[in-house]
Amino acid sequence: MSPDNDLNALAARIRRNVIESAAAAGVGHVGSALSIVDLMAALYGRVLRIPAVDDNDRDRFVLSKGHAALALYAALSERSLIDPALLASYCSDGSTLGTHPEHVVPGIDFSTGSLGHGLSIGAGAALAARLQGSSRRAFVLVSDAECNEGSLWEAVMFAAHHKLSNLIAIVDLNGQQALGYTRDVLDLSPLVDRFRAFGWNAIEIDGHDPERIARTIEGLAQQPGPPHVLIARTVFGRGVSFMENKIEWHYWPLDDAREAQALLDLAALDEQAVAE
Amino acid sequence: MRTAFAARLTELADADDRIVLLTGDLGFTVLEPFAERHPDRFFNAGVAEQNMVGLATGLAEAGFIPFAYSIATFATLRPYEFIRNGPALHRLPVRIVGIGGGIDYGHNGVTHFALEDVGVMRLQPEITTIVPADREQTRAALDAIADLDRPVYLRLGRLGDPVPKLEGRFRVGRLEVLADGGDAALIALGPLAQAALAARELLERDGIRATVAVVSSFNPSPEEDVRELLAGVPVAATVEGHYRIGGLGSFVAEVVADAGLGTRIARIGVEAMPHGLTGSEDFLAEKLGLTPAAIAASVTEALHRL
User: Fold this and answer.
1) Count of structural domains, chain A
2) CATH number of the domain encompassing residue A160
3) Are B68 and B96 in contact (CB under 8 A)?
């Protein structure tokens, strides 16, 4: 398993997988998955140290916004951590791959789906690493709307108090939640300042620049100190013209015509990336 | 019981470096021995029970056996979904430790009464619930679960005076018989064994010889033991510091119904939420019908209704 050198190319493959798998399964949560694809490419293409999926010294990853699991499955498949045939079974009867991830799948550390749970688990994983003298890290990807949950801030306080710098949170700041835009539902801004006020090292970053995301994470201090959070500015439904920043694509599934349009849009996005 | 728990856990942690103790900022004058002996494995998570259970989940996945300690209502009800989607879903050896069962915290009022904790924890098939009857059984239970590879809810009474004839016997998923009889049966949840034994003496004066047994664990639950105990027994009373539904009474009724036994069950427990009721444990037991006299009266009445 060698790190993928071209993270943009990896992200492009994950994006196509997301669209094709979602269309084949006829299920929603597509827009949420697309907003984290570049983050998945950075993590699974470069950042995460996973010698083996059952190695206790592997980095832990918690997809706290479990509803974006399809992007995680696609990344695991690209890294050969799950069988592509398993990915093809997404949401079919009897598959272990549902719209929310379950730890029974090798390569998935924790089952998630109820928001506000993952950061506590990640803090426990980071604390465990410290107690065991391991250099492994715990990564937790949360949604912005998930910061509505009070339990998340319990974990934020604990991690800062105990200087868990081996805990790295990433907020998928796509500005949307199930029924509206976050600024209209329960305004989170200024989120960076809020994390800083709680004692975290908070960094704003373009959530669609996997190279920069990977380099930023690799540059984070690991000696005991503030935990880290990347506030990743993302676009909900990234790359698909009719889905970007549209509330309804939190739940809507793709039909054949829309799938074809989405794949054309993604091809255009790839060309644009190459041109840049 | 709390002190016995802390003392035994401290000893176990000497030999088992997987043991970590988390508290939701409770346990003043109780947890200090552990904190002093194992400061690197003691964490006050603050008044944040959800995070405490989430931390325990992350710790357990990495190989630790975390004990998460608080008052029973706070330890179970506030973080209930974290327990369900954490240790239960991942089948991790997290120990939720809830202090004060039933009306133990008499003067503190209803927010501190654990009246449904056993019920909600018993609803999770993955979680073993243990309700020790006294301090000896608390120690025995800690030893019994040392290597149990699944989550445990440990409900500890505030006091823990030894239950006569129990002598620290404890087996996961079994009940322990304290007295033979056969005219009727009294089945008590944990510490209520004391009241059940006292009720047996009252019944004996009227010529009724009652079997007394104590149930201290669910999931696995003592189904077979209850079937054997109640075979041919016309009346059984369940006695618990808990609502009448969801806990021991419900469990015994389920076993009786499943097995098609003819035993009539009198479920003795708390009927409704005790609003605006404060006082000593004895006062509350009187008010809520958990005294030996009330238990004996229920059995007598049930026998008369046969």
Assistant:
1) 1
2) 3.40.50.970
3) yes
A chain contacts of residue B48, beta-carbon cutoff 8 Å: 154, 157-158
Closest CA to A242 of A226, A222, A223, A259: A259
Nearest C-alpha neighbor of A170 from the set A208, A127, A124: A208
Please answer yes or no on whether B58 and A125 come within 8 Å at the CB atom.
yes
Residues B217-264: tens digit of each pLDDT: 999 999 999 999 999 999 999 999 999 999 999 999 999 999 999 999
3-state percent helix, strand, coil for chain B, nearest multiple of 5: 45, 20, 35
* B176 secondary structure, DSSP code: E
DSSP sequence for A37-89: HHHHHHIIIII---SSTT-TTSPEEEESSGGGHHHHHHHHHHTTSS-HHHHHT
Query: What DSSP designation does B70 have?
Result: E
pLDDT over 80 at A276, yes or no:
no
Q: Residue A90's pLDDT is what?
A: 96
Task: Tell me how far apart the alpha carbons of residues B177 and A25 are, in angstroms, rounded to a whole number.
Answer: 56
User: For position B212, which CATH number holds?
Assistant: 3.40.50.920
Q: Give me the pLDDT at residue A1, please.
A: 39
What's the CA gap between A222 and B147, in Å, rounded? 34
**Strand A60-63, strand B152-156: pairing:** unpaired
Candidate from A111, A114, A126 with C-beta closest to B90 = A111
Q: Is the peptide bond before A190 cis (omega within 30 degrees of 0)?
A: yes
Contact A154 B50 (CB under 8 A): yes
Angle separating helix axes B193-205 and B292-304, nearest 10 degrees: 60
Give A197-248 pLDDT, tens digit per residue: 999 999 999 999 999 999 999 999 888 899 999 999 999 999 999 999 999 9
Q: Same structural domain for residues B149 and B183?
A: no
CB contact under 8 A, B81 and A128: no
* CATH code (residue B55): 3.40.50.970
Q: What is the pLDDT of residues A153-194, one digit of tens each?
A: 999 999 999 999 999 999 999 999 999 999 999 999 999 999
DSSP β-bridge partners for residue B98: B70, B155
What mean pLDDT do residues B88-109 have?
Answer: 93
User: Is B90 in Cβ contact with A158 (below 8 Å)?
Assistant: no
What is the torsional sign of CA A52, A56, A58, A62?
Answer: positive
